[in-house]
Design a protein that fits this description.
The chain contains 4 helices and 5 strands. It has a 5-stranded mixed β-sheet, covered by helices on one side. The chain has helices spanning 16-30, 81-92, 120-146, 156-165, and strands at residues 61-66, 72-74, 77-79, 109-115, 170-176. It has a domain at 60-134 and 168-173: Nucleotidyltransferase, domain 5.
Length: 183
């Protein structure tokens, strides 16, 4: 067959670049970028002077270790993570009743140390349980005293009063290689 003299219609592609550019801008503006938040911890301000030595009674320090096999040890006894919150709450809120636990919530220190081989998930699980124990105690005290949980308080005087009752004192030591046996 012979070709007819008609030309096929051409598509005008001059605006394709503009459309692609506008789509690119649209997706950049509307896309939400996930940001890793990490653990929020308030650090003390930097000073050149070394801190004074802390005098603490062994009774007022709860030792929590996680070894390279992700075994949790509280006071050198292997413990399950699900038991940690109750142990920590009992330790902090002892008020001198049990001679093996803290004298008061203001004196209680939780010493948390992981091994270099500790998994990230285990470290975070243990840290979350330690923080949750303080949060539970603050909620209970706030509910008793003000009729609502700590997170619902808006009066800074009330918030500070509960924070003074249960100051969060978690000491995180630098990870070491104490292995599977603990140390």
């Amino acid at each position: 067959m012979a070709k007819s003299g008609k030309k096929s219609p051409e598509i005008n592609a001059s605006s394709m670049a503009d459309i692609a550019f506008l789509l690119l801008i649209f997706f950049l503006v509307t896309t939400e970028i996930a940001i890793d938040e990490g653990i929020t911890v308030t650090l003390p301000p930097y000073t050149d002077t070394p801190p004074p030595p802390v005098e603490s009674n062994d009774r007022n320090t709860l030792t929590v270790n996680v070894n390279s096999r992700d075994q949790l040890q509280v006071e050198e006894e292997v413990t399950e993570v699900r038991e940690l919150r109750a142990i920590t709450k009992r330790f902090i809120n002892n008020n001198g009743a049990d001679p093996s636990f803290s004298d008061s919530p203001q004196e209680a220190i939780v010493s948390f140390k992981g091994d270099r081989g500790t998994s990230y998930d285990m470290y975070i699980n243990v840290y979350n349980e330690l923080r949750a124990s303080y949060n539970d105690l603050r909620d209970e005290a706030s509910t008793r005293k003000f009729g609502k949980p700590f997170g619902d308080l808006i009066d800074t005087t009330q918030i500070n009063e509960i924070k003074d009752m249960y100051p969060i004192r978690i000491s995180e030591a630098e990870p070491t290689d104490f292995g599977a046996a603990g140390g």
